[in-house]
Amino acid sequence: MTEQQAPAKQSVEAKPAATIILLRDGGQGLEVLMLEKASGKHFAAGALVFPGGKVAPEDIAYAQSKDIADEPFAALKIAAVREMYEECAIMLARQPGGARVMDAAEVAQCQASHGEAEILEIVTSLSLELATDQLVRFAHWITPPYRPKRFDTHFFIAPAPAGQMEADVDGYEIVDANWRRPADLLEDVHEGRVKLVLPTMMNIIKLSRRSNVAEALEVADEEAVVPVTPKRVKTEDGEELHIPDEAGYGMTTIPAEFLRSA
Hints:
Helix content: 25-40%
CATH topology: Nucleoside Triphosphate Pyrophosphohydrolase
Distance between the termini: 24 Å
Structural class: alpha+beta
CATH architecture: Alpha-Beta Complex
Mean pLDDT: 90
Largest sheet: 7 strands, mixed
Strand content: 15-25%
Order of helices and strands: EEEEEHHEHHEEEEHHHEEH
Number of strands: 12
Number of domains: 1
Oligomer: single chain
């Protein structure tokens, strides 16, 4: 087999991005918040996704203003929290020095006093702090160099705030939100009822091994995060995608049915 390399001139820079995989304990085990992307020209149109997006200049500026820019993954965590609020109005914020993340009523008060302001404006105005310490690194995927759009995406898991279980989607980029058991979600994918992009599917597979939020957080905190850049490999049976074994997904070759579903 030989690895297929894209010409250097086709490679574009991978944009830094961050995603939150929000978790809760449901009646039948671990559940994940999944957002449905609108159809059309959006990235991953029509797919179920985790909240997240590209790192913006304001994320970096906010980290610098709080003297946390040198902390590991600070701007990425801020971007993930910001994007989640923009997409589904769940706010990971609290009073300075406090332990409890705000509940829905407190978030509603912030929104009532600040209209449609972005989360970084709200927390700055009200002297709140982002609860970025709730985020635990879970995965790191980099789009292969042969793709026209590339992202360098860090995935974090976090427990859902006890008082904010209901997502309020923006209705433009995100049209629906639901809590799903990983096993049920994978069944829907294989039956063709829903669409997941590959990194989302692989991270759902990894989470399907965990029975509750505490276990997921504990294991993620102990495991090393290995960057994954899927590689095209030509074989006698056709083209395959390979990922590193040490990334912890339990496989090095992506099954063809996963690629068809994703």
